[in-house]
Design goal:
about 725 residues, alpha+beta, 3 domains, five-stranded antiparallel beta sheet, 27 helices, 28 strands, about 20% strand
């Protein structure tokens, strides 16, 4: 391994007085800690990732305010990621325990340091209970993996509070505890989370007091041993995150170092709350197949529920490049079906050359019925969504109602999930993902990122009814949701609809079919006509229960609204774009949520025919789902059993935990909203029923239509019961 003094000189500026800055220890982790030569570190492009320990939070605050320039010199960087204004506000006004900074040197290498106070580290390591650590950083990994050689791997999902595009605050545990069912007994495996893992897999490069670094590691290791079911340090170490990638000499170094440590076994015990949402695998663990055994979700904190108190009216001025027919040339190219935007009349991938310009633009040419509304929505999109995740508008042709957006390759998230479920297209190898099970982790990173963007947009655009009425530009975008517009203008009796096909097959009229009572698994839910009439009332924006209800800015549905760059797999978070703004506007958050919740949570049901072979009339298997139905003059009887994979249930939990729960909590504390909780749940449930019936035309797939009908009827009656049964999610408030 690289000598300690060499590591220190490479990582830190030797002219800076570390003790004067308040440092008592500095550790270096990552691959630099176990490489044999500095040249290997440079050639591999590895980051220099360290952990600095100061005595107190006050020392850390001073370091980020009074001694910031010296800190930059210490790490040999010209600047740190994130604006100075944001950092200054965050460190002075927020509740944090660790500050994570990163920056770039002149030679292009990345230097990072997480800075922690010794007081806080020692305090939490004296407590046997799991303790949360508030980390302030420019960016975070969206999930943390734990590894166990016997029980398998687990994943902890934690959502950060986005302060600005520069800085976020996230609360992460010191240790991750994953439950496992072994036989009929519930057991737990415990692994260090990010901060403790970095400490234990690092090497000391500076100590103000000899042996202090070893003492801090010994206290951390002691807590880990006491919290786990292991009996020795040697059995703990293989659960370090990067253990499998460590070279043999570094594993031997860690084993010999920690085996020789004197560990303490007396701890303070506080009441530990197990409030995490746990989605567990139902299948017995098979080490040869791998996969995650459980996925945990860290609940949002109450401070993450608050919307902006006094949102300001946005300027409606938005510069666009107007071009008319004859002022540009267009050359069309073939387009993959996965790149098509939903709800468009036409879409073409093309090369655009505007007269007088030398640059050719690679664009998506779209033609829109709701051209004016989409243009009116663009300023709100750029105000509320991260700009890098939106399509860039190159030009518009107002005469032909055409818009030209900058083209980005990739696939819709919807298609990736379908193809992954079929297991015939996407694989870890195709995406160049080096770590095991990374595709599941990759999809969860996207889903939690989308959930954060949507919830941040809701909070930033949250408008009371009174504010909306006074704001004329905003009021133009307050309109009936696409779900409601589809519901009040259905073409149920036309040839080619699912109900018409079922009615013809059973030799009855569509109206008779609509009025038949429906039972699902022996439970009667009334007729579809009754539920649709109820849905019309509940989703009507002019209904009395919406009189004092707030509105938020939404995309109007997420079916195919997320385009993912799936061509590379260098990190856990790929590039993504939000596409299709034709339905964007201000809606009730309940109705807007319903439009994407069904598609995202029940994708294996909605696309059952695409995820596997088509369902037939007899009991058949569709990824574990079963279906049987009978239609006669007495009614429609459907027997079905949904079987969601661990990934399906986890992707659903991300939307439920990080959008539905905070929205319901905000509604609970809004004094002007008089809608009671039961009506809110009915609005959400009936919105999902409409989404289940009208998202796809399943006239040629009667089994799939009836499977979605049964699921939608259950949701309309009691969404709580369905979410609990199918996703083990009950965390409404």
């Amino acid at each position: 391994m690289i000598p300690q003094q060499t590591l220190r000189l490479e990582y830190l500026n030797s002219t800076i007085d570390l003790e004067q800055l308040g440092f008592c220890c500095i550790f270096l982790g990552g691959s630099a800690a176990h490489r044999v030569t500095v040249e290997q570190v440079v050639q591999s492009g590895s980051d220099w990732d360290g952990l600095g320990i100061v005595n107190s939070r006050e020392d850390l605050l001073n370091l980020m305010t009074r001694h910031k320039s010296q800190l930059l010199q210490l790490l040999k960087v010209d600047y740190i990621d994130g604006s100075p204004e944001t950092w200054n506000h965050a460190v002075r006004n927020l509740d944090w325990d660790v500050i994570s900074i990163s920056g770039w040197t002149r030679d292009g290498s990345n230097r990072a340091m997480k800075i922690w106070s010794r007081n806080h580290l020692e305090t939490i390591m004296q407590d046997k209970s799991t303790r949360a650590i508030g980390v302030l950083a420019h960016k975070f990994p969206r999930n943390i993996q734990s590894n166990h050689p016997i029980h398998g791997s687990g994943l902890l999902i934690s959502q950060a509070i986005r302060l600005t595009d520069d800085v976020s605050l996230r609360f992460e545990d010191d240790f991750i505890t994953i439950p496992h069912v072994v036989g009929k007994k519930l057991q737990y495996s415990t692994s260090p989370a990010l901060m403790c893992d970095l400490l234990l897999a690092s090497r000391e490069v500076y100590e103000s007091i000899p042996g202090l670094g070893s003492t801090l590691k010994a206290r951390t290791l002691s807590k880990w041993l006491v919290k786990s079911d292991e009996t020795s340090v040697e059995s703990l170490l293989p659960q370090l995150y990067r253990w499998e990638s460590f070279p043999g000499h570094f594993r031997e170094y860690l084993i010999s170092t920690y085996s020789a440590m004197k560990l303490r076994h007396e701890f303070h015990r506080s009441n530990e709350k197990h409030d995490k949402i746990c989605i567990s695998s139902k299948a017995p663990f098979n080490s040869s197949k791998g996969g995650y055994r459980a996925i945990l979700f860290e609940p949002l904190r109450k401070e993450q529920y608050k919307p902006v108190q006094h949102p300001q009216a946005l300027s409606q001025r938005f510069a666009v490049n107007l071009i008319l027919k004859g002022q540009y040339a267009i050359e069309h190219w073939p387009i993959r079906p996965s790149e098509a935007l939903a709800f468009r009349n036409t879409l073409n991938r093309a090369t655009l050359l505007i007269n007088g310009e030398k640059q050719k633009h690679h664009v998506l040419e779209t033609q829109m019925d709701c051209f004016v509304l989409e243009l009116a929505a663009l300023p709100f999109l750029y105000a509320y969504f991260p700009a890098e995740r939106l399509q860039k508008l190159v030009a518009i042709d107002p005469d032909q109602h055409k818009a030209f957006y900058s083209y980005q390759g990739g696939s819709r998230l919807l298609d990736i999930r379908i193809q992954f479920t079929r297991m015939d297209t996407f694989s870890d190898a195709q995406l160049k993902l080096k770590e095991p099970y990374r595709l599941e982790r990759w999809l969860l990173s996207i889903q939690t990122c989308v959930a954060q963007d949507i919830m941040s947009t809701y909070q930033a655009s949250w408008l009371s009814q009174n504010f909306t009425c006074k704001n004329a530009p905003t009021r133009r975008l307050v309109q009936p949701h696409p779900l409601y517009k589809t519901l009040v203008q259905p073409s149920w009796v036309e040839t080619g609809t699912p109900l018409a096909a079922l009615a013809a097959e059973n030799q009855i009229s569509v109206n008779e079919l609509l009025c038949l009572p429906i039972s699902v698994n022996g439970v009667c839910y009334g007729s579809l006509q009754d539920q649709l009439d109820r849905a019309k009332h509940l989703l009507d924006p002019t209904a009395p229960h919406f009189e004092n209800a707030p509105t938020v800015f939404g995309l109007g549905g997420h079916s195919g609204n997320v385009l993912v760059d799936d061509r590379v797999g260098k990190g856990t978070m790929p590039g993504l774009k939000y596409i299709n703004y034709s339905q964007a506007g201000f809606y009730s958050p309940l109705v807007d949520m319903a439009s994407f919740l069904y598609v995202d949570c029940f994708l294996p049901v909605l696309f059952a025919d695409l995820c596997t072979t088509s369902l037939c009339k007899d009991y058949s298997t569709c990824n574990g789902m079963q279906l049987q139905w009978n239609i006669d003059k007495k009614g429609i009887a459907i027997d079905c059993e949904l079987e969601m994979s661990l990934l399906d249930r986890s992707l659903a939990a991300a939307k439920l935990e990080y959008i539905v729960r905070p929205v319901f909590n905000i509604l609970d504390i809004q004094k002007e909203d008089t809608m009671n909780s039961r009506v809110r749940e009915q609005v959400l449930g009936h919105g999902m029923l409409v989404s289940a019936l009208m998202t796809r035309n399943l006239s040629l797939r009667p089994g799939v239509f009836l499977l979605n009908l049964a699921t939608g009827m259950r949701l309309a009656k009691d969404p709580r019961e369905v979410f609990s049964k199918e996703f083990a999610w009950e965390n409404w408030r």
